[in-house]
Batch of 2 targets.
Target 1
Amino acid sequence: MKTPIRARVLALFATLAVLAAACGSDPPTTTETTLAAGQAADGDAEHGDDHGDDMHDDDDMHDDDMHDDELHDDDMAHEMEHAEPIDIVGPAPTVGLEVYPDPAGGVNVHVSTTDFEVAPELASTDHVDGKGHYHLYVDGERRMRFYNDWVLVAGVEGGIEHTFMVELSANNHSPLAVDGEVLTAMATLDVPDHEHDDHGHGDVETQEAGDDMLLTFIGTDVDPKKGWNLSVDWEGLTLSPENASGDHVDGEGHLHVLVNGTKLARLYGPDMHIMTLPDGEVEITVAAYTNDHRPYVIDGEPVEISSMITVESS
């Protein structure tokens, strides 16, 4: 991956302008920071949804087609707008941010922290000092809750500069703060235009995996606040978000999450918050893919695992 270009670190006050969408392959831009003036809100929008026909399509070569199903959850957003920041007791966490255009579309976001533990299993429960998760904003608008240090943000408009901000959140979704200042990091990126015609369609090649590659479902649990929390494990696969959409390296890659056969998101870690699912019997599939977006197979069978859950009508 190219060395990130140093970007200016911005302090955030109140709200920023709203926008979002697309991707590209130009050099990465960067970030850094630790504290920013207090900001709250929780729209809890979720990962992008790319409408591939099934997991064997080359839909990931058009990740900028993915869109957030819910950029706004009005009830939750209204509630969280009034959430008071929680001051950390003990060692003060720090947070840094880097953002990179993904050659296949979208923007890869990388978060680094100290003295902070991401705890997906505690999401939407009571505050525990030093634990929580991440909230991501694009141009001041809440885009998603996420649990891994890397995440792909789809649907970011190309050809203009965007501002990305990550906020450290308590388990209960209140912003975490030190001496009243919310813990955030920001970065700007001139997102390149991304042309769909850059990628061909047709039969997609597969990649034979080692016999030891295996995916395992840990669970898909109802989130106490809203949505579902997905957790998976794997063997024989090295997740390499820094090489996503790059050259193939045996045993490296990332995961795809599909709902009823339609791709929901690219996944760079073990945990994911899913905001909405269709009512009824729902099949959730997690599949292993190479850096260059080819499905891993063993003896012609895709390296994937599926689980059925029942979603009650809301």
Target 2
Amino acid sequence: MMKNGITLLLLIFIGLTNYAQKSKEPFEVYNVRNEEDGSTVVYATNNYLCDESVLIKFNVLKNMKADVELPFRAVVPAGAKEYKLFTLAIKDATKGSQLGYVTSYCHGDAFDGKHDNSYVYTIPYQEGKQYSLDQGYGGKFSHFMKGKTHALDFTMEIGTPICAARDGLILFVKENSNKGGKTFKFQEYGNYITIYHEDGTMANYFHIKKGGSKVKEGDRVKAGEVIALSGNTGWSSGPHLHFQVYSFDKDMNVKTIPTRFRQEEGKAIVLKKSREGYKSVH
């Protein structure tokens, strides 16, 4: 699932209330107040299968001092529960306190993570098969939009096996839709698989057919392994596979990443729009 980092706003009047909660969301930041000294500890719970970057900016901080540098940035490990971020201490116990902050978060390490540019990807279909590449980087139909600039559209019949382009962890699977169309309003109906890579980047495989996934969330896959069947769901001009690798920048906006693919004789190339297409070499 590729989307911009999520932002939450929390405003708390410490002198009046004690805010604490247990997370039911995939990722959540919450506070626990010490009634004895009035200090507040800020925690995170990460129920995602991957690390999450979190950025906390205070818009209100009255009579309190953090034990870390603000704004606060951190990476919360996958599956972490009650993960302590920092403590806010009371400056003057005779006065009231107030805090309010905005929390943003996204998948992977947005602060220090970096794509492994030496990695050579496998073209994401079965070995020896060849399909036309009808929209490449910066394509005028849909690849000019922010967050989709470095994306590839391989034209193929519905039900064509799709393979993982790189080893990784299945982060998200959506395969419940049978709806598609040529306008943006159909975007939400697209089925997809997201794979998380060891360098913190992700790959999206869009438009798979309803019930077409061959994997489930939490599975680990190898490059070249069949993960799904292609389709025509979501915002689509016709049956094809939309593939892109992406991560998030320090402002937690999506940034797609140009990649190189394996060809015969050990060659590694950047794919361009081609009616003839490219043969997948595993």
